[in-house]
Amino acid sequence: MNPIFDQLYNYINVTINCCCDISHSAFYQEKKTHSDYDIWYILAGEVTITLNNNKYTASKDDVIFFYPNVSYESAILEGYCEFIYIHFDFSIGKKLNALDNYNFSGIIRKELLTKVSETFKDIYFQYKNSDYQANYLIKASFSLLLATILDLPENSGAYRTFFPNNIKESTTDRFDLQSVLQYIEENLNKNIRIIDLANMINTSEKYFITLFKRNVGVPPLQYVNELRMNRAKKLLYIGSYSIKQIANILGYPDPYSFSKAFKKKYGIAPNKFKEQCQSLS
């Protein structure tokens, strides 16, 4: 999975704006543009999508992923087509439409999503007319489906068809940012300074902070802290490292500074967290 999604999972917010099922008969056509993300799960039949003069076909159990503000035409050429559609927002911190920097839009074939898509379908039809935990369970199963899509490798071969890339940010900015993220990941034991990160892409500190926050959703030092805290939890769970060793691995000047940061983040001292993990193992 993209390291940004993995490390900033606490800041990711998925809001389902609409989740319904619908059926269209043969010769139905429509042209639409949506202001939010849209995923279709095909329940039966076949639908043809036309986007930028290119035609794509999705069949039963395939998933179609549309991005905001992209015009498309859909048509049912024969028989009928039934599908569940989910309109949703995806943000990281204060960054809205956080998927726009990456191209996940397109058709994902059933072979890549069989188990999670069937789970989502079953939960949707079981709870769509129920007041009992319906919204919570549908969102949970949809989040699993979405996470699986975001984790798919780009080289999925014949099982995945990408729509034309409509990424707004320049590929140069995104490439340089990936090198910065890799540097942070590999140097958590050091004093990571914004000036050093900015120099990696030959820009000023002020513009680097703006660029980083625009692409990632949080300021750079907040991202560094998230990585350190996530790594700290893993090391504490392993149980073979002392608090002093973890503080050194993660670039804190002393165990006290690390313990203070950990407790501020999670509300529990790292030695107590370690004890809880050991009692559960």
TrEMBL record:
Pfam families: AraC_binding, HTH_18. Residues 178-276 form the HTH araC/xylS-type domain. The keyword Ion transport does not apply. The keyword Transcription regulation applies. Keywords: DNA-binding, Transcription, Transcription regulation. It comes from the Bacteria. PANTHER family: ARAC-FAMILY TRANSCRIPTIONAL REGULATOR (PTHR43280), HTH-TYPE TRANSCRIPTIONAL REGULATOR EXSA (PTHR43280:SF2). This is AraC family transcriptional regulator.
